[in-house]
């Protein structure tokens, strides 16, 4: 999820530059097709000291926007690769992205351990 052009300069400066993807080479930047470009940035990023009930409601509304987005997968992968520490990106909150990343790391570690075990048995 990229913030729309009317975002504050401070918020824009805090966002890392997106990485190029295969889609970008084909059709232009993936984020140009993002549905969230037409929505208020406040929906995707929490104000300071937001009450829990308000945060959960806002995040659900942001996820509904993401659910109808044609580039949700590209957005999610962008947020996981950087990794983006804040906001709703690709239909996932920051906490949900941390869980996905932890699972990926465990899976990669298990695969590497399995490959290392196979190499030692062959040798």
TrEMBL record:
A GO CC term attached to the entry: cytoplasm
Q: Where does [4Fe-4S] cluster bind?
A: 36, 66, 69, 75
Query: Pfam families attached here?
Result: Whib
* Ranges of Low complexity composition bias in the record: 7-20
- Record-linked PANTHER family: TRANSCRIPTIONAL REGULATOR WHID-RELATED (PTHR38839)
Q: Which UniProt keywords apply?
A: 4Fe-4S, Cytoplasm, Disulfide bond, DNA-binding, Iron, Iron-sulfur, Metal-binding, Transcription, Transcription regulation
Principal cellular location given in the protein's record = cytoplasm
- Residues of the 4Fe-4S Wbl-type domain: 35-99
One GO biological process term is:
negative regulation of DNA-templated transcription
| Record protein name field | Transcriptional regulator WhiB
Q: Which GO terms describe its molecular function?
A: 4 iron, 4 sulfur cluster binding; dinitrosyl-iron complex binding; DNA binding; metal ion binding; protein-disulfide reductase [NAD(P)H] activity
Q: Which gene encodes it?
A: whiB
What are the subcellular locations of this protein? Cytoplasm
Give the protein's cofactors. Answer: [4Fe-4S] cluster
Origin: domain of life: Bacteria
Q: How is it modified after translation?
A: Upon Fe-S cluster removal intramolecular disulfide bonds are formed.
Q: Where is this region: Disordered?
A: 1-31
- Say what the protein does: Acts as a transcriptional regulator. Probably redox-responsive. The apo- but not holo-form probably binds DNA.
Q: Which family does this protein fall into? A: Belongs to the WhiB family.
Write down how the cofactor binds this protein. Answer: Binds 1 [4Fe-4S] cluster per subunit. Following nitrosylation of the [4Fe-4S] cluster binds 1 [4Fe-8(NO)] cluster per subunit.
């Amino acid at each position: 999820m990229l913030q729309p052009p009317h975002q504050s300069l401070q918020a824009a400066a805090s966002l890392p530059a997106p990485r190029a993807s295969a889609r970008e080479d084909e059709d232009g930047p993936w984020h140009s097709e993002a549905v969230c470009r037409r929505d208020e940035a406040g929906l995707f990023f929490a104000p300071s000291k937001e009450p829990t009930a308000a945060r959960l409601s806002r995040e659900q509304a942001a996820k509904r926007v993401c659910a109808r987005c044609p580039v949700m997968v590209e957005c999610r992968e962008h947020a996981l690769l950087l990794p983006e520490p804040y906001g709703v990106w690709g239909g996932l909150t920051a906490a949900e992205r941390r869980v996905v990343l932890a699972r990926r790391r465990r899976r990669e570690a298990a695969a590497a351990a399995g490959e290392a075990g196979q190499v030692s048995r062959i040798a």
